[in-house]
Amino acid sequence: MKKILSVISVLFVIVFSSCNNTEVVREKNIYYKLYSEKDSLIGFSLRKYIFSQDTIKEKYLTIDLKGKKTYDHKRSFYKKEGDFFIFSNIKNDNAKFLYFSPAKKDTCFHVNRRIEKFYLCNKGKVKFKNYKNAYKVYYDERGYDSRKETLILDSDYTVLARFEDCYDYRKEIIVENNDISEDVKLKLESASKLILWW
User: Fold this and answer.
1) Is the model more confident about 147 or about 74?
2) DSSP code per residue over 108-156
3) DSSP state, 165?
4) Which residues contact 59 (CB under 8 A, 6 or more apart)?
5) So what's the pLDDT on residue 156?
6) Count of Cβ atoms closer than 10 Å to residue 85 Cβ
7) For residue 85, which of 99, 75, 95, 103 has the smallest C-alpha distance?
8) Residue 76 phi, psi dihedral angles, 5° rounding
9) Mean of the per-residue pLDDT values of the chain
10) Which pairs count as long-range contacts for 134-138, CB under 8 Å and 24+ apart, including other chains?
């Protein structure tokens, strides 16, 4: 009987420890409406966030009103305490660069990701729609394809809104999940199937 109990105890410890080592992966799909400078609806976008331990992966896709894919990209971030780092955009390069620090208001960071160089400035906390503790961030990319925009980030650093300050001055505003039609969701899903890495 003692042997059976000891075997059960060992099995329990093994099962419990293996459960504790299970990595929790959480996904978050966020839908947006895209507007022109004159506030005309010009398209929709989807950001798919994958949270895994200290890493956040972002997949991004935009479509026009007919459902045609107009843009896509993917990025990876690393969160350490309150600071937010972005990974290099070169294959097999694991370098990380400080992207955002909530503790450093009115501080700008120069981020050199090899292929792109930009400045990111924390303007402090703001209220945006129903989000009371959002962060306002100014983004300034230099170089050949330069652009400037203001980002509104949620407390988990996901994007709530984006306001371009160049080109056609587009706006990208978060839409509650139940406020976007199933037709638009299907169009975004169909467009995502054309992206190999999605």
Assistant:
1) 74
2) EEEEE-SS-EEEEEEEEEEEETTEEEEEEEEEEEESTT-EEEEEEE-TT
3) -
4) 47, 48, 50, 72, 74, 192, 197, 198
5) 93
6) 19
7) 99
8) -125, 140
9) 86
10) 134/160, 135/100, 135/102, 137/100, 138/108
- Amino acid identity of 158? T
Residues 6+ apart with CB under 8 A from 100: 83, 84, 109, 120, 122, 135, 137, 153, 157
d(CA 184, CA 170): 19
Contact status, residue 63 vs residue 187, Cβ threshold 8 Å: yes
Strands (E), the chain: 25-35, 41-52, 55-64, 69-80, 83-87, 96-100, 107-112, 117-128, 131-142, 147-153, 159-164, 171-175
pLDDT above 90 coverage of the chain, percent: 56
Nearest CA among 86, 88, 70 for reference residue 32: 70
Pair of tokens at residue 51? 């949270």
Instruction: Give pLDDT, residue 113.
Output: 73
Residue type at 34 in one-letter notation: L
pLDDT of 19-41, one tens digit each?
555 668 899 999 999 999 899 99
